[in-house]
Amino acid sequence: MRITAEGLAWSVAGKSVLAGVDLDVAPGETVGLIGPNGSGKSTLLRCLAGLRTPTSGSVAYDKEPIRLWSARRTARHVAFVEQAADTDSDLRVEDVVTLGRTPFGDRWRGFSARDRAVVAAALARLGLTELRERPWKALSGGERQRAHIARALAQQPYAILLDEPTNHLDVKHQLELLGLLAATDQTVLVALHDLSLAARYCDRLLLLHGGRLVAEGPPRDVLTPRLLAEVFEVDAVTGPDPLGHLAVAYRGVAAPPVPGDAVAPAAGGPPAPATEDPVVLASPTSATDHPTPELVDSPTPKET
Ligand SMILES: Nc1ncnc2c1ncn2[C@@H]1O[C@H](COP(=O)(O)OP(=O)(O)OP(=O)(O)O)[C@@H](O)[C@H]1O
């Protein structure tokens, strides 16, 4: 399912939070939404999920404007995993995941055997089968996060929007979740703070800055030292990690920008393409020789 937004803007109390956002996520793509704190990622996801009415502009799924959809129709097509989503604490894990079947359930007959099978599969996919009877309030933060993701999968949506879903997860579950999102046929738009994981698992990145989309493209074109300095205010280099994955290494916080020299948020039109080549962080074959990635200033051959 294709997700498109045109001229999307959202303001509150006279303050512009999101402005002029045009995006197009192709069916089956896994796209990472990145940007510093307060850049508008959650606001954009909420607008795309139909939970926030844009001040102007439009959101469409396969060209159908979401504003024309009922809540039930939206829930049958789009799942949204919010950042710190909370759920009624009297429920068990399985009940929370079963909430994902609500748009498909029959008011009188309840959930079918198929609904229960879908829930069981979603629990298994997130490694929660053993915890299915556990009361919600007895779960850790990471287990709750995985249950929310299982609930989204139980919706069997065509598109999944996730707001920093790896926040509470240990490294194994981060890798499992991002691997799952990258492998699925569903269209995925996921806000992430870990830029190296975003580079590794996303086909494309969208970079938000001050509520505007300032760059988009393959990770190597977006995660450039210049954009990282100007948007995230960090002094960083990018290049292959010891396993050959594009990664970001940080020297520290960037020097304050020279006035008038910062990234100009695109005032309409496509975001500026980035042109810098990444540098080598470590030889792809040197994992054991160099446990700490070394920064080398020579350019790397382009990835194929
Ligand atoms: N309801 C609201 N009222 C006032 N300001 C708001 C509201 N919602 C969002 N904002 C402001 O809009 C800006 C963007 O917020 P948003 O949560 O979308 O950013 P974000 O990129 O998701 O940030 P983070 O990385 O910290 O989660 C922030 O400055 C936030 O304070």
UniProtKB/TrEMBL annotation:
PANTHER family: ABC TRANSPORTER ATP-BINDING PROTEIN (PTHR42794:SF2), HEMIN IMPORT ATP-BINDING PROTEIN HMUV (PTHR42794). The keyword Transport applies. Residues 3-235 form the ABC transporter domain. Keywords: ATP-binding, Nucleotide-binding, Transport. The keyword Nucleotidyltransferase does not apply. This is Histidinol phosphatase. It comes from Streptomyces alboflavus. Residues 259-304 are annotated as: Disordered.
